[in-house]
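Sequence of Protein p34 (Belnapia rosea).
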Amino acid sequence: MSRTVRFAIGSVVIAALVLALKLGAWALTGSVALLADALESVVNVAAAIAALVAVHYSAMPADANHPYGHTKAEYFSAVLEGALIVIAAVAILHEAWSAWRVPRALEQPGLGLMVSALATGINAAWAVLLFRQGRRGRSPALLADARHLVADVVTSLGVISGVGLVALTGILWIDPLLAALTALNILWSGGRLVRESVGGLMDEAVEPGLLARIRGAVSTHAEGAIEAHDLRTRHAGRLTFIEFHLVVPGTMTVDAAHAICDRVEAALKAEIEGAIITIHVEPEGKAKHHGVLVL
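Predicted 3D structure, token representation.
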């Protein structure tokens, strides 16, 4: 079992624990804002399960039907999580409207807030661990889960502060207002998550900083070639696909051109973990005099 899969399993366990604690905080207080916080954790449980399935599937090796592997499966998990966030936000807004029309006094706010704070602390610690492993393993599913947990932590801190204010002042309309703001916040985070995941499914190019590193590696290590053009890149989960045309002198032997390609591939793989490289060699008559000039 890979480290990424173990973290995905851990996310399911942590999400279920946090959900139970937040539901307990809501039951103790009757706060609609704490209910909204708990509903967001329902999404966390569903998303953690989806991420576990996606991480397991994406780790499967390439086969005849999927020659480029299964790494894009993780993007489907992230899109599903974004959709679940939208559903949760609608449910929260419905509850907030009901509480706004008929305000309810809080019960046992002190104990309820302590339970909610414990759940928030667990979420924060797990989010830090997920970010580390997600970046190390280049896992969109784990990173999506981590980003959502961070949004959840921020939301929870706001809810805890607001519910504490309700308990101190007795101003009941603050509670449904907080719930509505919570819904809008998770709608925003869900929309951003879907946008990023769709970008991966649509084969968006790598970010400018990484593209500059790729161009630099090609320029530095393709000595003997003339230029590289038609450079194309895309991410697929933890993999980065890089392809380009490498122009060499027309008199160069196949062995010499192949040696340049090997050198460039080794440099790119050392620079970028999970790089999959395709190089098309062309004679100098195919030069376009733009792209990457070989140093």
